[in-house]
Amino acid sequence: MSSRRWITSQDVKPELALFSPLGAARLCQLAMGCAVIAMVTHSAGYSGSQGVFCMAAWCCCFAMSVVVFFLDATRLYSCLPVSWDNLTVTCAAFATLMYVTASVVYPLFFVRIECPYAGCDVRNFRIAVTVCSILGVLAYGAEVAWCRARPGQAVVGYMATVSGLLKVVQGFVACIIFGALANGSEYSRYAATIYCVVVYAFCFTLTAVVVMMTVCGRTKAVRCMPFDRFVVVCTLLEVLLYLSASVVWPVFCFDTKYGSPWRPSSCPRGKCPWDSKVAVAVFSFVNFGLYVADLIYSQRLRFVLLGLSI
What is its main location (predicted)? Predict the structure, then answer.
């Protein structure tokens, strides 16, 4: 029998939440989030869809961190019908991905070496925003690393395992795919590309169901099979579906019979369907690799429940 066991929040001492490396990481998350939002609204600024995305990501993560910190400090999470440990590590993993994306997009579109027309102060503020955003990545990543399950140690839930964290990444990559599909990808031209969209939506829904079941502590709702086996079956199905989509999408988008293997010279930057098709193809392969890795870890994962459910 595996030496791994599951523990619940009741097994953790009340003072552990604040006066620990985990509490310090959450304080850093709040500090970096507050600093980024203050500097962007004060002088750094943002504009366009890229700036709106970055600002929305920072505000969403900051609000989420405030709620988590407040509930953890007051112990009010015990009143919620959720698995708190699974919920917090899921939020931290999602926030890490959001901060990583914003930390790349913001300097790429807003930071320049030369001073803009508004003066060097604006440039300096934007550089400071980028630095604080990167520090935010480290803070959220530290929480994920601190809560991550390790062989032979007691862990707090499925979402703290490699398989659980991969579920969060898969959902995030699927959101990128949906964004590329909505950006003039012309997926409705062929039945085969519509099939790929259905595959992306179905796999995203299935992944979201597994995450929600875990976070809500409803893993016993799977009556026909143990939850770990249910996860393996779902992941295997997703691997097969993504394999088919990863083959079908490039064929019907870049083969000379259906599309163009080269980017049209007249295609405008930022609004080119060919670029969106490339993005969908690339991230389809990325998610396929993530699902394969998830399948490998899911098969190795064995649950030994302690107390309640996950």
Answer: membrane
pLDDT profile of the chain (310 residues), mean per 10:
42 52 91 95 85 94 95 88 90 96 92 72 90 96 83 64 92 93 84 94 95 84 75 92 94 81 73 85 96 87 43
Instruction: Give the orientation angle of helix 273-300 with respect to helix 227-254, to 10 degrees.
Output: 160
Beta-carbon contacts of 156 under 8 Å, excluding residues fewer than 6 positions away, are 6, 7, 8, 9, 85, 86, 89, 147, 149
Number of C-beta neighbours around residue 207 at 10 A: 24
Its sign, for the CA torsion 117, 119, 122, 127, is: positive
Give me the helices (H) in 148-263, please: 162-182, 191-215, 227-254
Enumerate residues 6+ apart whose C-beta is below 8 A from 86: 156, 157, 158, 159, 160, 164, 214, 215, 217, 310
- C-alpha 121/C-alpha 115 separation (Å) is 8
Q: Give the Cα separation of 204 and 175 in Å (integer).
A: 8
Predicted TM-score (pTM) of this structure: 0.84
199 touches 244 (CB < 8 A): yes
Tokens of 199: 């595959």
